[in-house]
Each structure stands twice: as C-alpha cells, then as structure tokens.
Specification:
Bound molecules: S-adenosyl-L-homocysteine
Shape: globular
Structural class: alpha/beta
CATH superfamily: Vaccinia Virus protein VP39
Distance between the termini: 47 Å
Order of helices and strands: HHEEHEHEHEEHEEE
Number of strands: 9
Largest sheet: 7 strands, mixed
CATH topology: Rossmann fold
Number of domains: 1
Amino acid sequence: MQREEMVRTQIAARGVTDPRVLEVMRRVPRHRFVSDEARPVAYGDSPLSIGHAQTISQPYIVAAMSEAAAISADHVVLEIGTGSGYQTAVLAELARTVYSIELIPALAERAAANLQAIGYTNVHARQGDGYAGWPEHAPFDAIVVTAAPPEVPEALRQQLRVGGRLVVPVGTDWQELMVIERTPTGYRERTLMPVRFVPMVRGPG
Ligand code: SAH
C-alpha cells in the first residue's frame, strides 16, 4: 500500500529510525489533508500546494521534524503553522495534546474542521500569530514550527519546558532546521539539515 511504500522508500531510507514515528507515518491518512486534485499524488516525495500560497510539507520532512522533537505519549506539544493539519495529525498521534496556531483564517478553519472530522480529539487549533506562542498552555514538551522565521522567536524559546525541544527552520531564502533544547541553565542548539519552508509571517499587531 502507498503509505507503506512512502515510509520505506522516502522516510526510513533517509535515516528516520524512531519506531513510533515510522508507525504513525504509516497510519495518518495524508490523502485527506490535500485537495481532491492532489489525492493521486498525496504519497509522493514532495510538498504540495494547499492554496493561499502555502504547502503541505514533504512526508520525509514531517517525519524528520517529528523525530527531532522526541515526543512521548504524555507530552504536550505546540505547533506553529497548522496549514493543512497533516503535521498536526502526526503530532496528535505521538503526543497527549497538541496546540496548533495558523495565521491564515481560512486555513485555520479548514484544518480544524478536517482534524475533527477525521477524529482527532486531542488537538486544539486556532487562528493567530505564532510569534507569540500560546502562553496560556506553556510550558510545552516540544514546539514544532513549520514556517521559517528569520531568527529563533524568543517567545517560543521561553515557552519550552526544561528538557523540551524546539524544532524550527531558521533563515530567509533557504533555512537550517534547528533543534533547540532547553537545559536547566540555558539552551543547547544544533542544526539538522538545510530545508526550505514558506516564511513565518508577522501577524497584524
Ligand atoms: N505543517 C503544515 C505546513 C504548512 S506551510 C502542513 O504540513 O500542512 C506553513 C504554514 O505556516 C502556512 O499555512 C502559513 O500560513 C503558516 N504561518 C506563516 N506564518 C505564521 C505565523 N506567524 N503564525 C502562524 N502560522 C503561520
């Protein structure tokens, strides 16, 4: 089946090994997060348009970011850039609760309705500007950002629990995927790989 093949040839083949992540990637119905026209290629090795000049990320990138976030079943996760809601669904299968913020109202509404229709009950999605994070529900065990800010947003760093990880593509044209772990005394940073995401836009106000 197409999802098995996607995991084998695109994700495991590129070095993702976390068994829970691979299992979840085999399960989440990616075709339900793309447009009708894109359904035949939903399991292809590429990002796809979701309208509003935005894209659903390539399956491998979703898996690699989920693995880098090191999510356990009892974790509370914040996602910035809900988009189609596909990464949200993957996170929801890995974590206890997922909070997700999307800037574009039409995308935020569609993703929330779709996630609910598919049956995700542990997702709280809202429209808003991810630069502020979601302080009411902080601290988070992991924060996954799927749009690229020019620099690491300070509010997101501060909303990490000690031991928690922020996975974020940082830069303008091309970006480095960074993993920032909060330690008892500060932050430990490493870069994973070069990536290309849509820009993280500043909301009004
Ligand atoms: N994870 C999504 C990726 C969508 S693309 C998926 O796989 O479908 C990135 C998304 O980030 C876009 O929908 C874009 O509108 C959103 N975005 C950009 N800037 C943002 C901001 N400041 N706050 C929240 N969302 C933002």
